[in-house]
Amino acid sequence: MKNRDSSLSVLWTKHAVLAAPSLFLLGAIYCEELFLKLYCFRSLTVEGVVFTLLFTLPVALLLGLLCGSVSHRAGRLLLPACTALVSLWIGTQLVYFHMFKAFLSIFSLTKMAMVAQSFGETAVGNVLASWFPITVMAAPTVLAWVFRAAIIPDGHDAGRSLRLRWAVMAAAIQLTAMGLVLLCGGGVLSLRYIYYRAATPELEVQNFGVCTQTQLEVCRLLFGIKPDSPDASEEPAPDMAPPDLEPSRPDASIVRPAPEPIPGYHTLPIDFDTLLEHEEDEGLKNAHLWFSQRPPTPENLWTGYFEGKNLIWIVAEGFSTLAMDPDRTPALWKLSHQGFVFDHFYTPLWGLSTSDGEYVTTTGLIPKSGVWSYSLSSENYMPFALGSQFRKEGYSTFAFHNYLYNYYDRDKSHPNMGYDYYALGQGLELEETWPLSDLEMMEKIVPMFVSEDKFSVYCLTVSGHLTYTLDTNAMSLRHWDAVADLPYSEEVRCYLACQMELELAMESLLNQLEAAGRLDDTVIVLSADHYPYGLSDEQYSELAGHQVDPVFELFQNTLILWSGDMEGTAVHVDKYCSSLDVMPTLSNLFGLDYDSRLIIGSDILSAEDPLVIFANYSFINGEGYYNSVLDQFTRWDGAAPDLEEVAGMVADVQNRVAYSATILDTDYYRLVLNGPPKAPKA
């Protein structure tokens, strides 16, 4: 027994130089990962606990190898440094999610100087308010410093062979964990699907942890998002072909006429057969096949209904149905209860909030996870952007924003969408409060376009921006008297107060249009970029008067689509729809040329099946609704779901996500529509 104890002691002494720091880091990182899950999601799952441990092990082993492979003095500095870096990343994700209901992407880190310049004070305030989780995240670094001498022993050399074995062990555990995930294919949105195919940061963190989510995000940035479509070598499925059209395969012996638009459908002449025949890249081949098989959206009774009218299209910061009241916000109330009234409209929250909310609304595409899609689109050919479309029709096109002109690179993306762009610092001078005034912007910009023969205007507001306190929100303070007596908490009342500025802006817009005689021939569209995530779920539930469902109901909102000549009338649309569908709906109403196969959203007024997609792959369609967190589909008729059918629905969602990314990554519109050559970089 004594010899055995002696052998174990020698073995431990030999391995302690690597084992001790690895075990310490494993405990520190794993505890922080579990704390983040509890703090952000308020729950733990068995899968999340087990797989987070498995995927944390290789990280801890490699960091322990790093700390133990150098001199003990250097190792004692590396140990707290490594602990601090990992704790900083996990802690930053925790605070960021608490602020924005999304996780910080690596791409966003490259733009942090811009974000800090604009929202540094807000971030500092949230950091100070999050003192408890930050203290928890800082504790391992303090422990690493205090016990560094005990964890990194004196004078022991790990040796090359031991270091190699340790690295192999880390790789083996990583591969084992990935192999176990491969076996977890049960359900519709399985762990295997989440890890290997889907692009869902929230579900990745819940099931695998922050460190693994970061690794998966890097893979997406390098290799893209994998679709769930058939291989390009397969025949197109007949049931996916447009009505009355037979799919065909390329045949070099046949001389094909130039493609023509399909009569009665929203299509453009695209020769997918030739594209498939000459494309060598497998990813693009799959994209050509998938887009060619999508049934195009047919024209309908509303096609061209607004043709020739002017358009004022507003994306309103943090707007919510719950901000409206017939007495307090009469202009918004009127606009939302007349014209087209959409009973089931949603504004899902995507990964990067405001910018992604804009991108979805104005392009009909799903943003790519982890990047600023609007910013990256600024070098792409964007022929379906309404600015470009209306400019071709002879309209004067303008875009306005009452904040910094270059924030989120809008000074590049918005001109690329066909607009003359004006914002703070670029042709628009406003009183620099925070947030800035929507009313002041509207008073200044309407005279810039109202006398034009025909105009198309896009406007992004900012008065509804977080945070919702009297100390930090000038608009809340400005309108406090209007909400002071309401039976809500101060934060909720501050939110309602700052939305009063949007109400005054809309009232001013209507009055100016009417005074200029342009009200009857102008269409006004307004929707939110996202729900007001600056309110906690509890505060939003307080405003709603009941506990709000965080999967679906939280994102239910209002789409205003109104024309002066529709005053007093209401066309109710009882169809599930979202901000993804706004752009194709407007394109149809104004009779614009577009190809519905190349747009992920669809015309709400068409017979197209409804589909509302959320960032975590939950969705609502004509059959029912799917909760990705529970991996549960509920049919509207109460019947038991067909899991194979539901799997096909999830695959459709995955394809829409993946091929939206393809459009962004490959400048796809330029390729398939023979767009102009790309301008050389300056």
A few lines on this structure:
By secondary structure, the protein is an alpha/beta fold. The protein has helices spanning 2-41, 46-68, 72-100, 106-109, 112-129, 131-146, 148-151, 160-183, 191-196, 201-208, 210-223, 272-278, 282-293, 330-337, 354-363, 373-376, 386-392, 410-416, 438-449, 474-478, 480-483, 490-515, 537-544, 582-589, 643-666, 668-672, and strands at 310-316, 339-346, 396-404, 420-424, 427-428, 455-460, 522-528, 556-557, 560-563, 570-578, 611-613, 619-621, 624-627, 632-635. It has 26 helices and 14 strands.
Task: Please provide a written account of the structure.
Strands 1, 2, 3, 4, 5, 6, 7, 8, 9 and 10 form a 10-stranded mixed β-sheet that branches. The protein has a 4-stranded antiparallel β-sheet with strand order 11-12-13-14, covered by helices on one side. It contains 26 helices and 14 strands. The protein has 682 residues and is of the alpha/beta class.
Which helices and strands, and how do they pair?
Elements: H1 2-41, H2 46-68, H3 72-100, H4 106-109, H5 112-129, H6 131-146, H7 148-151, H8 160-183, H9 191-196, H10 201-208, H11 210-223, H12 272-278, H13 282-293, E1 310-316, H14 330-337, E2 339-346, H15 354-363, H16 373-376, H17 386-392, E3 396-404, H18 410-416, E4 420-424, E5 427-428, H19 438-449, E6 455-460, H20 474-478, H21 480-483, H22 490-515, E7 522-528, H23 537-544, E8 556-557, E9 560-563, E10 570-578, H24 582-589, E11 611-613, E12 619-621, E13 624-627, E14 632-635, H25 643-666, H26 668-672
Parallel strand pairs: 1-6, 1-7, 2-10, 3-4, 3-6, 4-5
Antiparallel strand pairs: 2-8, 2-9, 7-9, 11-12, 12-13, 13-14
Helix pairs in contact: 1-2, 1-3, 1-6, 2-3, 2-8, 2-10, 3-6, 10-11, 19-22
